[in-house]
Amino acid sequence: MAKNACYAQSGGVTAVINATAAGVIETARKYPDRIGTVYAARDGIIGVLTEDLIDTSQEPEEAIAALRCTPAGAFGSCRHKLKSLEESKAEYERLLDVFKAHDVRYFFYNGGGDSADTSYKVSQIGEKLGYPVTCIGIPKTVDNDLPITDNSPGFGSVAKYVAVSVREAAFDVRSMCKTSTKVFVLEVMGRHAGWIAAAGGLAAEVPGDAPHIILFPEVAFDERTFLERVQSSVEDNGYCVIVASEGLRNGDGSFLSEAGTRDAFGHAQLGGVAPLIAGLVKERLGYKYHWAVADYLQRAARHIASGTDVEQSYAVGKAAVELALDGQNAVMPVIVRKSDEPYQWEIGTASLADVANVEKKMPADFITNDGFGITDRCRRYLSPLIQGEDYPPYRNGLPEYVTLKNVAVLKKLDSAFELKFK
Amino acid sequence: MAKNACYAQSGGVTAVINATAAGVIETARKYPDRIGTVYAARDGIIGVLTEDLIDTSQEPEEAIAALRCTPAGAFGSCRHKLKSLEESKAEYERLLDVFKAHDVRYFFYNGGGDSADTSYKVSQIGEKLGYPVTCIGIPKTVDNDLPITDNSPGFGSVAKYVAVSVREAAFDVRSMCKTSTKVFVLEVMGRHAGWIAAAGGLAAEVPGDAPHIILFPEVAFDERTFLERVQSSVEDNGYCVIVASEGLRNGDGSFLSEAGTRDAFGHAQLGGVAPLIAGLVKERLGYKYHWAVADYLQRAARHIASGTDVEQSYAVGKAAVELALDGQNAVMPVIVRKSDEPYQWEIGTASLADVANVEKKMPADFITNDGFGITDRCRRYLSPLIQGEDYPPYRNGLPEYVTLKNVAVLKKLDSAFELKFK
Question: Which value does ipTM take for this structure?
Answer without folding.
Answer: 0.97
